[in-house]
């Protein structure tokens, strides 16, 4: 079994790569800027788990790069069984201050990237008549919008919509599901002040942000045979929300 995790070098993606390795799944770690983190993670996995690891630099928003990445994986392994569309970016800023260029960059990475990877990996999954795709959206796409992330929230709503299309288009061979995390302790939230974190914690029934592993375990479950009848589902993993 081979799993491609986009943005697999850091944060939630890194935890997903580790959880797959623990489950004896070979992992392909895609990254964009941070090569060192990808190489170190690959080294760690090779030392600790009996699986194969590959690292590939690729901007998921660029079609030629995605096509090359997918070819590189199939040349090496002959298959891709699992795709996790995890790569994502967020740039806080008020709606009135955002330029179309900034807005489109978020859409291109988060939504177009999910489309492109699903398109090229999906072709292989359809040929082999098996596969699982897990998309990473966000509770921001559902009901917990953040005032400074209109582009991000729209991109993540698009990921949910795309999940339904992919599940339809690739049925019955490929199961496609979507995870919507709430707040997670990663670099994406490193600029939040202590006061902001405390305020957000008050809105979460469990009273804290998630550890990345807590998202990763749900993703690996969805990609496993244990979830053999879970398809086209949007699953929130946010500790429960309260009015705060
Ligand atoms: P991080 O900022 O920690 O990591 C982002 C990852 O995406 C990195 O691996 C980065 O690679 C990769 N990436 C960014 N741009 C590209 C690109 N153009 N092509 C390929 N890879 C790219 O984010 P998180 O781990 O927190 O987030 C992971 C996913 O979870 C995202 O989709 C995010 O929207 C979602 N999410 C996160 C939440 C949170 O609270 N953290 C909440 C809800 C959803 P590199 O380092 O090489 O640039």
What's the gist of this structure?
The chain has 244 residues and is an alpha/beta fold.
Folded structure, characterized:
This protein is 45% helix and 15% strand. The chain has helices at 11-22, 35-48, 63-77, 100-128, 150-170, 194-201, 212-223, and strands at 2-5, 26-31, 53-57, 82-85, 131-136, 174-181, 234-237. It has a seven-stranded parallel β-sheet with strand order 3-2-1-4-5-6-7, with helices on both faces. The chain is of the alpha/beta class. The protein is built from seven helices and seven strands. Bound molecules: NADPH dihydro-nicotinamide-adenine-dinucleotide phosphate. Residues 6-7, 9-13, 30-34, 59-61, 86-90, 109, 136, 138, 181, 183-184, 186-189 line the site of NADPH dihydro-nicotinamide-adenine-dinucleotide phosphate. The site of NADPH dihydro-nicotinamide-adenine-dinucleotide phosphate (NDP) has 30 residues, from helix 1 and strand 2.
Bound molecules: NADPH dihydro-nicotinamide-adenine-dinucleotide phosphate
Give the overall shape, derived from the CA principal axes: globular
CATH level 1 name: Alpha Beta
CATH superfamily: NAD(P)-binding Rossmann-like Domain
Distance between the termini: 43 Å
Biggest sheet: strand arrangement: 3-2-1-4-5-6-7
Number of helices: 7
CATH fold-type name: Rossmann fold
Strand count, sense and barrel status of the largest sheet are: 7 strands, parallel
How much strand content do the residues show?
15-25%
- The oligomeric status of these chains comes to single chain
| Class derived from helix and strand content | alpha/beta
Total of domains: 1
Mean pLDDT score, rounded? 97
Give helix and strand order, one letter per element, not per position. Answer: EHEHEHEHEHEHHE
What is the radius of gyration computed over CA atoms, rounded to a whole number of angstroms? 17 Å
Low-confidence runs: none
Helical residue percent band: 40-55%
The CATH architecture: 3-Layer(aba) Sandwich
Total strand segments: 7
């Amino acid at each position: 079994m081979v799993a491609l995790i986009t943005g697999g070098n850091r944060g939630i993606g890194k935890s997903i790569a580790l959880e797959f390795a623990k489950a004896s799944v070979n992992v392909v770690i895609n990254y964009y800027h941070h090569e060192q983190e990808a190489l170190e993670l690959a080294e760690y996995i090779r030392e600790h788990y009996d699986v194969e690891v590959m690292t590939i630099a690729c901007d998921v928003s660029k079609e030629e790069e995605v096509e090359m990445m997918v070819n590189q994986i199939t040349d090496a392994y002959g298959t891709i069984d699992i795709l996790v569309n995890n790569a994502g970016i967020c740039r806080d800023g008020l709606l009135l201050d955002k330029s179309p260029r900034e807005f489109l960059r978020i859409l291109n990475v988060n939504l177009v990237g999910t489309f492109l990877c699903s398109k090229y990996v999906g072709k292989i999954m359809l040929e082999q008549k098996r596969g699982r795709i897990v998309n990473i959206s966000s509770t921001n796409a559902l009901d917990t919008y953040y005032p400074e992330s209109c582009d991000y929230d729209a991109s993540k709503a698009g990921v949910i919509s795309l999940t339904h299309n992919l599940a339809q288009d690739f049925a019955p061979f490929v199961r496609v599901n979507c995870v919507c995390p709430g707040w997670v302790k990663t670099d994406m939230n490193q600029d939040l002040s202590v006061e902001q974190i405390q305020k957000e914690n008050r809105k979460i029934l469990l009273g804290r942000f998630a550890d990345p592993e807590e998202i990763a375990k749900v993703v690996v479950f969805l990609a496993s045979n244990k979830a053999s009848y879970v398809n086209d589902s949007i699953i929130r993993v946010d500790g429960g929300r309260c009015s705060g």
